[in-house]
Amino acid sequence: xxxxxxxxxxxxxxxxxxxxxxxxxxxxxxxxxxxxxxxxxxxxxxxxxxxxxxxxxxxxxxxxxxxxxxxxxxxxxxxxxxxxxxxxxxxxxxxxxxxxxxxxxxxxxxxxxxxxxxxxxxxxxxxxxxxxxxxxxxxxxxxxxxxxxxxxxxxxxxxxxxxxxxxxxxxxxxxxxxxxxxxxxxxxxxxxxxxxxxxxxxxxxxxxxxxxxxxxxxxxxxxxxxxxxxxxxxxxxxxxxxxxxxxxxxxxxxxxxxxxxxxxxxxxxxxxxxxxxxxxxxx
Length: 283
Hints:
Blueprint: E1 6-8, H1 11-22, E2 28-33, H2 39-51, E3 54-59, H3 79-86, E4 93-95, H4 99-102, H5 121-124, H6 128-143, E5 147-151, H7 155-167, E6 173-177, H8 197-218, H9 224-237, E7 242-249, E8 265-272, E9 275-282
Parallel strand pairs: 1-4, 2-3, 2-5, 3-4, 5-6
Antiparallel strand pairs: 7-8, 8-9
Helix pairs in contact: 6-7, 8-9
């Protein structure tokens, strides 16, 4: 690991370090993660290096955004591997807060983005986006970034964060970054590590369904129902039976679309084996 990366676990130390970095009108870019870093995360770090004088990366597996029967306990944790990967980048600090500090005893204050969080993943993961919004706001308050970089694979999460940053007049500019994919089209995800070889082959049907919808749209079909049917056929033919959703939505407010147009979001979530995967594409 690079000797130049400072490892910080104390909330006060992180806050003081940020204040130190910002003296002299220096800008901080922040990349919040849950660890198990892959090339998708590292693309965010690379962008952070480009836009600011200093880069801070947090690694915190946030218990509040996991449901009762989800994979919090099994979520991949590889701190040594993560810090080794970050050593190739210009990272000033890795922030590793403890859950007991982020959520102290008697913690009872939460942030909700009431409308956007209801759709898509919000329907099947109640409380998830409340957990996301709460922890991201807390991290913003501690790190005090000028910029925060997020991937578009978690598109609904990105919209939730953009909304509360605007609604609460936070002085953070949100920088979205495109999905990073394997050569065969599979969107990079820390949860891909859970997949067996057979499951990974089936997981490719998610991106194939999105690409098929996009191609049919380019060929002139604008009927959202017919476009979704095109993608559902691919999922069903690939034995993906536990489909949470495959929908076309407005990319700003996430409202359901009947007549598709350029700029709309096509989003999918499904379980492959026991692993829930999400993916999306913009028409």
